[in-house]
Please model this.
Amino acid sequence: MLESAPPQDPATLVRVSRALDLAASGGRLDAADAEVLLSAAGADFERLLEIAGAVRDAGLAASGRPGVITYSRKVFVPLTTLCRDRCHYCIFVDTPGRLLRLHKPAYMSPEQVLAVVRQGQALGCKEALLTLGDRPEDRWPEARAWLDEHGFESTLDYVGHVARLITAETGMLVHLNPGVMSADELRMLRPTAPSMGMMLETTSRDLYEVRGQAHYGSPDKDPAVRLAVIDDAGQTRIPFTTGILVGIGETARDRAESLIALRDAHERHAHVQEVIVQNFRAKPRTAMQGVADAALLEYVAAVAVARIVMGPRMRIQVPPNLSDSAEFDLLVRAGADDWGGVSPLTADHVNPERPWPHLEDLAARTAELGFALRERLTAQPEFVQDRDEWIDPALHAAVASLADPQTGLAAVRRSADPRSSSERRRVDASSPNDRVKQLAEAAASDPLSLDDVEWVALLEATGDDLDALAATADDVRRYTVGEAVSLVVNRNLTSSGFRSAASGDPATFTLEDVAAVAADSWDLGATELCVQGLIPAAEDPEAYLAIARTAKAAAPGIHLHAYRPQDVWDLADRGGLGLEGALVALREAGVDTVPGTGVKVLSERVRGLVAPGDLEIDRWIVGITAAHRAGFRSTSVLFYGHVETAAERISHLRRLREIQDSTRGFTEFVPIPLPGPSGGVPLVPGRAPLDEQRAMVAVSRLALSGSIPHIQIPWTRVGLGGAAELLRAGGDDLGGTLLDGRVKPEAGIEHGLELPVADAAAIAARLFRPFRQRTTDYREPPVDRWAATR
Model:
């Protein structure tokens, strides 16, 4: 449901109508016109969207790409999270004390940057977005000391060095977002990046000057200073990205004046390549955590007015991760034509609670709205095609190698890195004492470059080598998925306990119990019900579907994470549906995602020895691949510590990566150690169980980086203390709360073990990392599902 606008007085309605007529005729809006259009409601709002969409369509046609919405495939590089400003809504920044507790450097090293960028390059990224805090050396002695130690005059001097290094080493193009810069600094950085950016955010002086407002205490948020930077960028002939932030306390007049100011700057210099209209999203641990997010219709109106004010040839960008996909229709109708940078590898480190959409999903959703999704470079096509005017000669060759010469968009074929993996790695075999460290660093940069023997060496690391391996894996985690520790509020229900008639066994349940369990789970705050296990042979396989339908009917909002490949094959075979038919039936019954469990190690030798009742390996692969192709995402697992060899573990990880390359269906990987007398066999004799687990988690993070994003720590197997240690070895997720609930608690596997949200948040706090409650697919739960700790 869209929020309804308050009723408007007749005089306002007249002003809105006149402003709409002016916009429809192509007239030039002033701040008063823009302000009144921001209040359009009802039929006037619909007309506003119609006019804005028509302006956008005319501009795309004139640019030679009608019906095209663009994006840039990027890696997000948070070069430093130190900053001299104190914005009241920001969680990007750290203090030196916090960095020390996190074991995090003041600045990313060149090696850390290249490790991330090279992985992005392997995934087809062409943009490296360098984002950082403003001039941290002016506030923090620790930043000044780091720069002095490494031979840089300033943070911006280091930015230029890293930008040059990225393009020289990878051929990727850099987009610089380092905050306020002087004209001289802009000129200094121009040869390092084809485009730069800085959000204006707002022209409101109250937000900057009044104590308690969003920008108070932040010298770089002075609107006059930021407008001067935008002007200087134009004079320096730099394609520049800027925009407004909606919902941080500014008035409608402020929004209107901000857009007019951006139009004026662009008219002076013709350099603004895109205007971002970004909606405020409240962040925990900030002064504005209790402020409501930007209202949807206000935000959409701002997008539409931005389109009309800026005109047909401007690109209007809306970040796709800050809106639900169901809202994309409104944003596109409002005249948006660019999704901005989207990463297949790294988190949005400024908005880590809002994951990027999968590019395949974004393309499909864009197509549903009647547009084709096309990749562009860091600079918009018009600037790429007029590179003699806009792009420094030092970058012409790099830009030309990635650009389509006819359109100025990204070329369909990406230039390959001419160097071999061994050349990129530069592992010095003559230094055996450093071999594990060098292998770990090589894996961080290019996971596919290591052979099985090298991966085994990492799995078998001990002592200082293991510490170095874990630290490297944790850096990869930090600079890809981010700092947050996540958890889903869920409950398990073991479907092997289903009975068509009630029995006296508390571990069994009927369909009536399913309804009660689902409703109880929802009432307790769960967003997920996980159901898995073979329906007994004496029961009708239709029960798989009946359980799903019953759970969804009792709790329509709950996410049903249900049925392993072995369970699906049972429905397919005994139910006579076939595999594809079973998957269709499960989707129609309400299943949302599937567990990728039911396998120990992807080796028939291991299955025959320890789990002969499990599904055959080939059938598991066919089943999980078919589920992914049918639109289901899934988890993936490895049970280790029994009869498997180190090489079989590595082979398992490689097979998962191959499946992921084909389907992009895995959301997470869970390395699960076997406990007790039947398992827990160390790869290295005498190595402590926790060190076995650290090595497995670290290797999983490195081997799957750029493929399966999340490494989940199975806290039920390793304990909460062990889980905290493994979160420092590359892990980022704690799985689920595993609520027992008040109905049939014995009917869930691992009943009797619960991880309350407050306890998970406390683990994250002890690690000085943010905690994030998530949904099954790693998105933000609705506000009414947030646990009390939020």
The chain has a mean pLDDT of 94.
